[in-house]
Structures are given as C-alpha cells and as structure tokens.
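=== RUN LOG ===
request id: a7f3
mode: sequence -> structure
chains: 1
length: 513
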Amino acid sequence: MKKTIVRHLYAVGVAALALVLTSCEDWLNLQPSTSTDTDNALKTVSDVENAMNGIYRLASAHSYYGDNYFYYGDCRAEDVQARVEKGAGRRVSPYYEYNALADDAFNIRLPWEQVYKVIRQTNNIIQKVNEGTVEVSSDDEAALLDELAAEALAMRAMAHYDLVRLYAMPYMTDSMALGVPIELQPELPTHRPARDTVYEVYTQVIKDLNDAVNGGLSRSKKDGCFNYWSAKALLSRVYLNKGDWRNAYKAAVDVIENNGGIYRLYTHDEYPTVWGQDFTTESLFEFYFTQTEPAGGSGGEGAPMVYADNVLDWNNLILTQAFLDLLDEDPDDVRHQLTKLPQRPEANDLPFLTDANGNQISISDRRIYLGKFPGKDGSGNTPQDNDLIILRLSEVYLNAAEAGFHLGGAEAEQGRAYLNEIVSRANPEKSVSSADFTLERILKERRKELVGEGLVFYDYLRNQKTISREGGWHLISLDGSSARTIAPNDLRIALPIPQSEIDANPNIKQNPR
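=== RESULT ===
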C-alpha cells in the first residue's frame, strides 16, 4: 500500500533550523522553497530540474550526509572514536556510546525527519512525471525529464536505504524485523503509516535502483548527480549488505569494467593529494560545497569539521589505536600519509592511553587525525568546503572482492584481482596470494581503505562480527554505557524511533532495547 510519513513530516522541505523546531501544526501551513504545492510547481522541465537540484542540496545538509549519516558508520565500530565525551544530545558521543535516546533531537529526530523530507520531494517529482503533466517542448526536454525522474528514483532509494540501516536491525541479522515506513507518493498529512519490514524496504530500494538504471539515467559523467554508474555502485552496496553476493558482484563488475574510462582508481602517487579536490577520478557520487554558501560548506560545521584537527572547535572524531596498529602492519602503506599529528599537542583536550600499570600516557605524539578532508586548498584549515564523496570506486572494487570471495570459483579469483588493485596501490610491493585471500583479509583492507567514509560499521554487521573497543585510548564512558563490546545482534544497533513519531502516530512501534 502506498503511504506517506506522519503529519509533522508532511510539508517540510529545506527549512531553517528555526522552522524545524516549530510546532507540527505550524509546519503544515508553511511551504519551504523545495516543498511547494506540487499543483503550483513542477510545471516545466526546468521546474523539475530545479527541484532535483534542491533535493541534492537537501541530502547534503545537516542531519543527513552533511553531518550525522556520514560519520555514523565510523564511530559505531572499532577504528574511529569520540575525542571527548560531550553528553546526551551532542555530536558523536551518543552514537559512539550506543546510548542515544528517542527524544534526542540532534542524533535521532532530525536525521529521521531530514531524510523523509528528501523522500517527499522525490515523490513529488516522480508523481508529476508519471501523471504526464510536466510541459515538454522537444525531444531533448523529454529525454532530460526521463533522466531527472530516474535520478529522483535513485535518490528515493538511497534515502530509504539510509533510514533502514540506522533505524532497524541489519538485514543479515533479522530481515523480518521492523524497518521504516516506505513512502512512494505524497499523501495527506492525516495518513498514519506503520513500519514496513527490513526485507520490504530492501526490496523497494532495489526496485527503485533497478528502475533508475533501466530508465533514463545518463551513462556519462554527471558531477554532483546520480548517473547509471553511481546507481549501480549503490546497488552493489545494497546487495552486499543483503548477502546477495551474485548481484553485488554483477553490479560492481559492471561499474569497474564497463564505465569506459570515465572513472578510474587513484594512482599510488596521486593518493595522498586528491582528497580536497572536486570530482576526482574515483568519485561516482559526490556532494559539492563552496565557502560562498551560507556559513561556508556544509553549514560550516558539518561532517568534515567533525573529523578535523582539534584547532577547529567542531572536532569530535579521532582514529583509534586499533586502526593505527592495523596501518602499522605495513610502514610503507601510502595511507599513512592520511593520518596526521595534532596541530596543538599542548592542548589538554585529548584522551590518554592507560598502560598496564594504570599510568596515563599522552597520545599527542600519535597520528590520530584523519586527513581525508583537507579542504579545497589542501591545507587542512578549511575542511568545511571539502566535498563529500558518497560513492567511491575503491569501495566498488572491494565490494566485488568480498562478493567474489563468497561466490568462489572464477569470481573469487577475479575478486582477488580486484582486491590486489587496492592492496598494490597502497604499496606496490604488496599483494594477496590465493592462499591469503580470506574474508578476514578483505575486511582488513576495507578498514584501511574506507576509514572515515561511514562504511566499516556495516562490514561487521553484514558478516556477523563482534565489535570490540578494548584498550587504546577509548573513552571510559564506554564502560558506563556497556559499549566496549557490541555483538551483531545487539538491539542497540537499531537507533530508537524518534519519540515525536511515536507520539504523533499510534501505528509506529518503538524499537526494543
């Protein structure tokens, strides 16, 4: 059945925080710029194109990829941790400590609402195109309209997928667990949807992505927008986390082998210097920022700022000892160049390493900062104008490697070749033999390559691995929240549904704890 999200999400679009914090009834009387009455908007192809650009901007903003969704998958696992304990309702800490509460606006309510805003706007476009009411004056406009409708489908798929991977248990743990409401058209705010299952959400996500790639998506490079290759890359990610190794492999190989040279891996020499640049050779889907926007970049305090050095106030993410030890297994790995020493080691704002005798040891001489967000000038001083790469070609190679391993045979051997593209790029003297081509070796390489890209948490969940955060300079607050060890079936993996949703909709059930 087609549904829409509960009343207080009905009419919100790209709105200022002050607007978000007003009452439910007030929201229903307001029409933000990308949430206008669709009878009065989306009349021309130009209107649809402008609306699609608004959707990309909405997805890049705070409470979605501009903040929470980007770093969530890092601080929940082993390789990235909170620098300081900031308390309930603050950035990073509740995710890291597995103690976010249903009434937490910053970490729970706003990330739920923001993504449903994206879904509503995509549904507006899809509905108008399907109704045939958008004015088209040429064959070129007709082709562009088909392309925009396919982009809306891809964005709707990504949004549902992102919601279900935060607010529900993993597919590989319990595919029949409650997921999130599937929204396929804009409806009246009086509708009260129930939660669909994780299985149902994945099924819809895959349908939307396949409809997009079989529809009008461009096979040309289209910076800042979904195209055929980025949708296929997302499909490989979704299939992988569903345990559908065959389709994950097929989607990944399509991107790797058939993109016609539009995308290629960074070289060994390029690797240390590309991270602040716009639309690099590996970037399949990327959100673009400039400092000329309001507050600069992703709001001036978004995801890149959270990974930044402690000279910048928003930081609350550092690399763990476990990750640095992993990287130290190969002193010549080029990825060492993306770890940074503190810029002000004298500052008393870092955790301590505690030795076997209980002594506290400073970590100011450890390379605990991640250099993947140096800003466009590469200096590291303006991370807020760093673009956010959501889908990168290296991930696709690693998806193919893992899926190929599970399939065995010729696919496993080709998967090993894809893995070695990443391994040998990091150190040309290294490669993985057939005997060493194991799941553990693949997951190790994913940790090294994809740190700081919000993905590694899901590697543990997909493969039913326990997350361990013992030792090093992990914060003692993990003890208070019993978050040192997270089993793959720990119910806290699913974030609580916002209390505001529970209060507004009697059909929405809360996640158990």
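=== NOTES ===
Confidence is low (pLDDT under 50) at residues 1-38.
The radius of gyration is 22 Å.
=== END ===
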